[in-house]
Hints:
The protein is α/β, with parallel strands linked by helices. It is built from 11 helices and 13 strands. The site of oxa(dethia)-CoA has 20 residues, from α2, α6 and α8.
Amino acid sequence: MKYVAGITGIGISLPERVLTNFELEKMVETSDEWITTRTGIKERRIASIDIAASDLSTQAAIEALSMAKIKPEEIDLIIVCTVTPDMMFPATAAIVQNNIGAVNAAGFDLSAGCSGFIYGVTVANQFIKTGLYKNILVIGCDILSRITNFNDRNTCVLFGDGAGAVVISRTEDEGIINQYIKVDGSGGAYLTLPAGGSRTPASFDTMEKGLNYTHMDGAEVFKFAVKAMPDAVNHILENTGLNILDINYLIPHQANIRIIESAVKRLHFPMDRVGISIDKYGNMSSASIPVALYEVYKDKKIKKNDKIVLVGFGAGLTYGALLIKWLI
Ligand code: UT7
């Protein structure tokens, strides 16, 4: 028996609080002009202190379940893709499972940086293809403001908070057509959260040195990204025998508009078929791709049976792409 999977529901959750470039001008030595021209970001959302990753994940999941017309007890597995879990354990997936009453589900968190959602959907697809599971929730959620040093202008202008969730179900028509995921650990040092793990546990010393915040060599990550994204998309095209112009819409990870433009140019793909939400939300890590996908769907830029490529890169350094057929 051949089983196939597709996205049957999608939902998002974004904190209400908007942090503008103009507010950041008062916090660090930066300007709206610099942030806009160097990154494409105008504003981002920041979760209030009482909100954790499981809260945004739960809200996004409830909307996705409602669209898919799936009851929580029909969910077999919950994968929360995040680098900002509520805590190291239990997994955020376990908290979401309890919040939504998914009483028959397994659950785990997946750490693949900003490529988390691509990895999560890939994993979910395998569970459906083997016939083991019928309905899986994949959630990309990050509250990057919790691990951002708001005294460091190199990073604090880039990040934001949010969540996006999809229901992946066994479907008649194949919705998740192809995937390609990779990791290149040789570049791992370019994007890290140095302290708080078993190598360098959190301490007063690490707090003083700012090691509990994201550290990034932006230029190195930039160089990696502009090659990795076209590379992943080209693998998908090779795997499926498709031409880039057979793709109706491209949804890239939203880290920097210049990275997106450069990758899209290398692919010879038109910018007016690229999902962009970085101006409103900044880089939300695992949440960026599902949120951008949700918005192009809500804006009616994609329609049933369209072929869509999702592509991302992030800490690891990870990268990957997915080819989906939109079934909703
Ligand atoms: O999801 C994956 C995670 N991250 C990324 O994908 C980020 C990838 N990298 C990038 O997006 C870009 O490298 C950045 C946006 C981080 C930086 O842009 P850039 O064009 O590579 O700038 P730069 O690092 O080469 O810095 C240029 C100048 C420097 O000043 P000097 O040394 O030339 O005097 C920086 O100190 O811009 C300065 N600068 C800033 N100025 C105003 C850096 N950050 C800021 C800032 N405001 N926020």
